[in-house]
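On clarity, I found the account of how folds are encoded harder to follow than it need be. An entry of this sort, consisting of the sequence and the corresponding backbone structure tokens, reads as follows:
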Amino acid sequence: MDNALLFDARARVLADLQARGHATAAAVSVLEDACSSRQWWAEQWPQGEEYVAGLVAQDVQDALFETVGRWPLCLGCQGKPEHALYIQPDLGGPDPVWVCEESGEAIAPLGSL
């Protein structure tokens, strides 16, 4: 696997964690675990390397749900119940973006929250 893709995925997810105030030690540990897991996954399926960034984001999102709740929250829908963003396309790439689960609108590319 091209390590540059993994480092890019890590940097993009970390930027989004920081942008939403969730770059805690626990969240960064979750991110590191997700990167390690996806590195192994990409080594098994080299054609899937372009999906790694989005999949790492989804892994972190799933793990944080268990401890801190929904992340990242949508900040654009005023007056609606609290809801999260999710990575689109579902497989995580190529070119993953955060999408509002309520409106279906693209909010930001991964790494640009």
Remarks:
- The mean pLDDT is 93.
- The chain has three helices and three strands.
- Residues 3-109 form one domain.
- The longest helix spans residues 25-44.
